[in-house]
Amino acid sequence: MKKVFAEIGLGNGSFLSTEYEEDGKEFRIAKFVLPERNRNVYLRFWFGKTVYVFSLRDGFEITKKDAKKIKLLFGVSGESR
């Protein structure tokens, strides 16, 4: 199963996008495709190197990244074949 992150918002290059992760590889398409199962809804705010995530499943998380970006995204994550 590959991980799927369907997102709406600013900062990914297109307003609607979907990221797929499988075997350590990632790729993104400019289209909103919902995952088939294990769905989670989240709001992600990335400012500088700090990422704030408000998730229905995991609650609130703060992480650090190497890249500096500004993003504001609403997303649905899960798995697909």
Description:
A five-stranded antiparallel β-sheet has the order 3-2-1-5-4, with no helix packed on it. It has one domain (2-80). The chain has strands spanning 2-10, 16-22, 25-29, 37-55, 59-80. It contains no helices and five strands. It is mainly β. The N and C termini lie close together (5 Å).
Computed Rg = 12 Å
Quick check: average pLDDT?
95
Distance between the termini: 5 Å
> What is the H/E string?
EEEEE
Q: How many domains?
A: 1
> Which class of secondary structure composition applies to the elements?
mainly beta
The percent range for strand residues is: over 45%
User: Which sequence of strands runs across the widest sheet?
Assistant: 3-2-1-5-4
Percentage of helical residues? Answer: under 10%
Low-confidence stretches: none
- Name the shape in a single word: globular
The biggest beta sheet is recorded as: 5 strands, antiparallel
